[in-house]
Amino acid sequence: MVTVLGMVKGKVLAVPFPEGARLIQEALERPDYRDAYAMELLPGMPRDPAAWTGILRDAFPVVGRQGGEVLMKVSASGLDAWASILVDSERVTLCSAVKTNGWRSKAYWGVVRWVHPFMARLMIVRTHRTLAGVTSASSP
């Protein structure tokens, strides 16, 4: 069943960075890589983006919050990775941006970038299912 903005109920879709994802768009002027994946929210699911930070298994520390967006960052070995979780009234979107700062980080990202889309989709689906279960279990 196709719903708002071409979203398919229960499916994760690759989408452009949403207009509301301002923190991540301002974090890196020219990233080497960026992507975004979205899922439709079910009734009763949390609209607070902090509830969704488990998508990244709390591996990224939160460095900013504005409106319905939470911004997280991790830097290691010359690689700056940013993630944003944006929650609006209809969907949750996981945005990623990466900047490599040297040959080691370019080599590392050259390998990881092939796995990243699969892992990003898996993480948003897993968290969506977990929060949907919590929501349905807490409903009367």
TrEMBL record:
It comes from the Bacteria. This is DUF2867 domain-containing protein. It comes from Streptomyces cylindrosporus. The lineage of its organism: Bacteria, Bacillati, Actinomycetota, Actinomycetes, Kitasatosporales.
